[in-house]
Amino acid sequence: MLTLNWNGKMKFTAHTESNHEVVMDAYTDVGGEDSAARPMEVLLAALAGCTAMDVISILEKMKTMPRDFKIEISYTKAKEHPKIYTDIHLKYIFYGNVPKENAEKAVNLSQTKYCSASAMLRKAANITYELVFES
Question: How far is residue 37's CA from residue 46's CA, in Å, rounded to a whole number?
Fold first, then answer.
C-alpha cells in the first residue's frame, strides 16, 4: 500500500510499500513552494526508471554492460485538462562498447514485454524511442 501525507500548501510525501519516500510539490503560482518534483514529472521518472532497470538487467545477463547509460525523455501534453501526456519519446543513450544488437534487444524487450510503466502509459500516449551510442 502507498500512503500520501500532506505537508502543507501543495507539498505531499508519498510513503511507498518498500518503505521509501517520494516528495512532490507544485509551482508557486498555484500555491506550492517549488521544493520538489511535480506529480507528472514523477510519472515520467517512474517510466525512465522502469525501462532503465529492465535494460541494464538484460544487458548484464548478456555480459555487455555499458560504461554509462542514461535516458532522456521528451513529451507533448494535451492542451486542455486533463493535461495528459499524448506523446512520449525516450532516448536511450549508451556509453562504451555495447553491441548495437544487444542494446536493441534489451530496449525492445523492455518496451514490449517487461516495463509495466510503459505498458500502462502506452494506453494513453504514443510512446516512441531511439537508441544513441556514444564512445
Answer: 12
